[in-house]
């Protein structure tokens, strides 16, 4: 069976490193980093993600402010709250939890966020910095994947990396980071790709971020490939007390035995997304106060 890439373990290591830095700040009588979080509506998964981020802030000693609004909030009112966070010197970075209600333009929201406080790494300024010699605040999930590969000493240089999913949040920035930082040869697939398996079978490193449980089956990967499963979907399960279970995009049970490394779901990439958010918040703080 492939070696598990334990995202939870790596995230705990990162949290310990960030907590140590926060303790140093306190010992020097400096204020600690402060993360703002905007949460809209009652979507269960969004609340779960935000609760995880708040828990992480508490664990490392960050201050945090949660602004929670009904799903009926107008786009104009939301934009005013974002502008206030942009101008608030006590807030070092903030996020707007996605997805947003359909009547609110994600592009409009991201465009208004001050790139210095964009700890999700979504603004054009931060996104574009991926291909520079001095990247700024990197998109949190791809950042987490790169940290996972680095900390497990998975070789990426010269490898063929196939990414399934081309979203701006994961797939697109992931492809750039694997080229720039990982020095890999990258193929990116999306919903219009023909014969997906033809591409995935060639992957030394396969990264999947689609949100379709079981999309990648054992016959679609070659032996000893590195498998990174970013997808996570709630599937009803009456045998569970919570009424659902979490599944990734990869058929873990059948692919794990033939892989060299593989991420579990849950416990793989998810915890590292939050850990990367902490690193970005600390970086935003240091860039604004040094």
Secondary structure blueprint with pairings:
Elements: E1 3-4, H1 7-27, E2 34-40, H2 44-60, E3 63-69, H3 75-87, E4 93-96, H4 106-112, H5 124-128, H6 140-151, E5 160-164, H7 171-180, E6 185-189, H8 196-200, E7 205-208, E8 226-229, E9 233-236, E10 244-247, H9 252-255, E11 261-262, H10 269-289
Parallel strand pairs: 1-11, 2-3, 2-4, 5-6, 5-7, 7-8, 8-11
Antiparallel strand pairs: 9-10
Question: Brief overview, please?
Answer:
With 290 residues, the protein is α/β, with parallel strands linked by helices. Helices cover 40% and strands 17% of the residues.
Protein architecture, described:
With 290 residues, this protein is of the alpha/beta class. The chain has two domains: 22-116, Rossmann fold (3-Layer(aba) Sandwich); 140-269, 3-Layer(aba) Sandwich (Rossmann fold), CATH 3.40.50. 40% of the residues lie in helices and 17% in strands. It is built from ten helices and eleven strands. It has a six-stranded parallel sheet with strand order 1-11-8-7-5-6. It has a three-stranded parallel sheet with strand order 3-2-4. Helix 2 links the parallel strand 2 (34-40) and strand 3 (63-69). Helix 1 runs parallel beside helix 10, helix 6 crosses helix 7 and helix 6 (140-151) packs across helix 10 (269-289). The longest helix is centred in the N-terminal third of the chain and has 21 residues, at 7-27. The model has no long low-confidence stretch (mean pLDDT 95).
């Amino acid at each position: 069976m492939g070696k598990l890439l334990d995202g939870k373990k790596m995230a705990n290591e990162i949290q310990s490193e960030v907590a140590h830095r926060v303790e140093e700040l306190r010992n020097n009588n400096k204020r600690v980093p402060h993360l703002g979080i905007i949460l809209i509506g009652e979507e269960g998964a969004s609340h779960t993600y935000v609760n995880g981020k708040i828990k992480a802030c508490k664990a490392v000693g960050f201050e945090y402010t949660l602004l929670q609004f009904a799903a009926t909030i107008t786009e104009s009112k939301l934009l005013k709250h974002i502008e206030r966070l942009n101008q608030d010197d006590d807030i070092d970075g903030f996020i707007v939890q996605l997805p947003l209600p359909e009547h609110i333009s994600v592009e409009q929201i991201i465009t208004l966020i001050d790139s210095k406080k964009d700890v999700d790494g979504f603004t054009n300024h931060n996104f574009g910095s991926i291909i520079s010699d001095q990247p700024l605040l990197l998109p949190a999930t791809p950042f987490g994947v790169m940290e996972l590969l680095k900390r497990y000493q998975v070789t990426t240089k010269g490898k063929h990396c196939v990414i399934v999913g081309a979203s701006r949040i994961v797939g697109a920035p992931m492809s750039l980071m694997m080229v720039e930082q990982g020095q890999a040869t990258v193929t990116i697939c999306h919903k219009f790709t023909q014969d997906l398996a033809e591409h995935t079978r060639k992957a030394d490193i396969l990264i999947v971020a689609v949100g379709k449980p079981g999309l990648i089956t054992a016959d679609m990967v070659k032996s000893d490939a590195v498998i990174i499963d970013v997808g996570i979907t709630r599937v009803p399960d009456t045998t569970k007390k919570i009424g659902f279970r979490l599944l990734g995009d990869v058929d873990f049970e059948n692919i794990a035995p033939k892989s060299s490394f593989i991420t579990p779901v849950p416990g793989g990439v998810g915890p590292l997304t939050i850990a990367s958010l902490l690193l970005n918040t600390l970086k935003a703080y240091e860039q604004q106060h040094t």
